[in-house]
Amino acid sequence: MWDYITERHAQLLYQSYQHLSLVIQCVLLATVLAVALAVFVHRNPRVVALAGGVSAIGLTIPSFALLGLLIPIAGIGTATSVIAVTFYATLPILRNAVVGLAGVDNSLIESARGMGMGAIRTLLRIELPLAWPVILAGVRVSAQMSMGIAAIAAYVLGPGLGSFIFTGLTQIGGANALNSALVGTLGVVLLALVLDALLLLAGRLTTSRGIRA
Amino acid sequence: MSVLDTKPPAGIADAKAAAASLASSQHRRPSLGLMIGQPLSVVVVLAAWAIWRSQAELDSIEQRQLDWGLLGRLTVEHLKLTVVATVIVLAVAVPLGIALTRPRLRRAAPIVVAVANAGQAAPVIGLIVLLAIWLGFGFWTAILALCLYAILPVLRNTIVGLQGVDRTLVEAGRGMGMSNRSVLGRIELPLAVPVIMAGIRTALVLVVGTATLATFIDAGGLGSLITTGIRLLRYPVLISGAILVAALALLIDWAGRVLEEITRPRGLG
């Protein structure tokens, strides 16, 4: 296996980079989308149940089915995997962001208002910072999920390490099938660990000092 | 609930568990929309699809792939994968979870959960392919992969559910002269049922979705429509497969929800 890795280290590095970059970009996009949606949901209590339902139903739909539905629209390749990964990444963050915003103590918001803060400043300086740890927990769930979905998306020629897994599948019986599948799988696990560590670090740096554990 | 969730999870796989506990800690009765609206809209979509299927002009390949008999067989295969894997997961994870909350093994519980968590971090498609290389293609390899993937939520929720039982109730049972077995069977398990059932529903949803990938190792299921549709670039086949898989997953999710409601002990409201 070591020979396999050294022989293909350029391709391996490139696909790892592609995998990580796909996941990071999609999760970033998903975070922005989810927080914006959550703020909207939070302001309109009537749609809270709807958001919960959409989130639950969305996560029920198998990723391979969504990839299938997207191909006629977005074609085979990167666009389809970006849309699919972003879709699934949005749902846990949305759920957590709604919970996090709802958990902010009302008296804090009242006092912010009393100090003369407007709605937007209250949101940016009080509500979002207080909800941030919960949102971040959602981001970490999303990141891990996205790693696996990005691997499946390699079947429709999305970028990333999934291609090694599918190469292993098509070459079963061949000399390098096991190496290929193993390298792809372990690579994804490794990237997931690295990304999670990065997110933890980012969490420490971005969590407001007053609520840091 | 928010108190529970504000603690950032410690390990990577704990993040997923946090999501699971988030889902399972919602003891609110599911809304009417979920209980009635969801299956109803699935049925409407399925009906619309069936009307399209019986009227659409398909070429010969599409006709063969979307033959009613074949569709029925694939659906049955998919259900078989789902049910067999879930039953095995139940048979393994619930007793294991019970064992890991007994005094003798209690210390091992965090280790076992950590191992199960670590397994969860692996991409499921990699797990399936690796198992297929090791054990060969086929139904039982797919079942093994599905079980490995779905065991964590049930195991974890069984442990959490049993640990969540109020100690004073257990003491009261003991005080009434109940044996360990009857305390477990008549107090602990009934009180833990809602949490365990939430884990089972999570497992069901994971399994029905992941069974879509079973087609890659010739274990059947509705996923084969999607792969065939992609390989032959036949959008009708592809989209039919995606719709059927999604509809099946949503119906299974709904069935799990109904099961959760039915099995909830009366006293817990």
Automatic annotation (TrEMBL), chain A:
The keyword Transport applies. It holds the Pfam family BPD_transp_1. This is ABC transporter permease. The lineage of its organism: Bacteria, Bacillati, Actinomycetota, Actinomycetes, Propionibacteriales. It is a multi-pass membrane protein. The chain crosses the membrane at residues 20-40, 47-67, 149-169, 181-202. GO terms for biological process: glycine betaine transport; transmembrane transport. It is found in: Cell membrane; Membrane. It comes from the Bacteria. Keywords: Membrane, Transmembrane, Transmembrane helix, Transport. Residues 16-199 form the ABC transmembrane type-1 domain. GO terms for cellular component: plasma membrane. Belongs to the binding-protein-dependent transport system permease family. InterPro entries: ABC_transp_perm/SBD, MetI-like, MetI-like_sf. The keyword Repeat does not apply.
